[in-house]
Design a protein that fits this description.
Blueprint: E1 7-13, H1 19-34, E2 39-43, H2 56-59, H3 72-83, E3 88-94, E4 99-107, E5 112-116, H4 124-127, E6 132-137, H5 140-154, H6 159-178, E7 187-190, H7 196-211
Parallel strand pairs: 1-5, 1-6, 2-5, 6-7
Antiparallel strand pairs: 3-4
The protein binds adenosine-5'-diphosphate (ADP) and the ligand Nc1ccn([C@@H]2O[C@H](COP(=O)(O)O)[C@@H](O)[C@H]2O)c(=O)n1.
The ligand Nc1ccn([C@@H]2O[C@H](COP(=O)(O)O)[C@@H](O)[C@H]2O)c(=O)n1 binds near residues 15, 16, 64 and 118.
Organism: Colwellia chukchiensis
GO biological process, one term: CTP salvage
GO cellular component, one term: cytoplasm
Length: about 210
């Protein structure tokens, strides 16, 4: 690994497997020692394509679990910019309106970048940019229960709409585009975002990388 470019740690797995919690726990626990210029989180979901040109009735029909729903080319471009020492303006996304918001988040390169999302391993162009690849391996029935609990509260979804979407796209796309790419992982983490040993091991690796800079 080069020492002068950000280390990109990609965390993938099924929806509601615990990717965000795993990334956020590591971020929160390392922030006091690394500072805001030392570590950042980027979400693949920030790169869902804008759908502002579509009516709401059409936005809900989108397959959000297929790679084509994402602007992966923009994510790849931003990762390249960050690796070259340049800042980027990351889009922000709203799950309630199914499209991008007007504002962006300005991000300067940090030595450690935690990147999390469901389809990060589906593109070889993206995979080639990752220094460490982690797969959160949580049984799908547990993910579904977590998704129902989360999306009814945080994403304004009804249980009926979650069930319909799960059967039509979330589950089939998991078997087509997420689970087969587990083989690209360097590390497979069981038990989701609360696996204390998996959290401590990645923190130790990050500390080692920081000492080597
Ligand atoms: N190991 C775990 N045990 C219990 N709840 C968890 C665990 N990991 C994650 N969760 C919860 O499940 C929900 C989905 O987790 P999240 O990290 O948002 O998943 P993802 O980012 O993979 O979609 C959240 O409410 C989170 O707090
Ligand atoms: N408008 C949208 C966009 C995405 N989704 C679902 O989000 C999931 C990915 O995010 P996680 O935090 O759960 O990893 C994905 O499974 C999409 O189905 C959505 O429902 N609506």
């Amino acid at each position: 690994m080069q020492t002068n470019k950000p280390t990109i740690i990609a965390i993938t797995g099924a929806s509601a497997s615990g990717k965000s919690l795993y990334a956020k726990t590591i971020f929160d626990e390392l922030l006091p020692e690394l500072g805001p210029n030392g570590i950042a989180i980027i979400k693949e979901d920030s790169y869902y394509k804008s759908q502002s040109h579509l009516a709401m009735a059409d936005r809900v029909k989108t397959n959000y679990d297929h790679p084509s729903a994402y602007e992966h080319s923009l994510l790849a471009q931003h990762l390249s910019e960050l690796c070259q020492g340049n800042s980027v303006d990351i889009p922000t996304y709203c799950y309630k309106t199914h499209t991008r918001l007007a504002e962006t988040i300005h991000l300067s390169p940090t030595p450690i970048i935690l990147l999390e999302g469901i389809l990060l391993f589906s593109s070889s162009e993206l995979r080639n940019k990752f220094d460490i690849k982690i797969y959160i391996d949580t049984p799908l029935d547990i993910c579904l229960v977590r998704r129902i609990n989360r999306d009814t509260v945080e994403r304004s979804r009804s249980v009926e709409s979650i069930a319909e979407q799960y059967l039509t796209t979330v589950r089939p796309m998991y078997y087509q585009h997420i689970e087969p790419n587990k083989l690209y992982a360097d590390i497979v983490v069981t038990r989701g975002g609360k696996n204390r040993m998996a959290i401590e091991m990645l923190k130790a690796k990050i500390r080692q990388l920081m000492h080597g800079r």
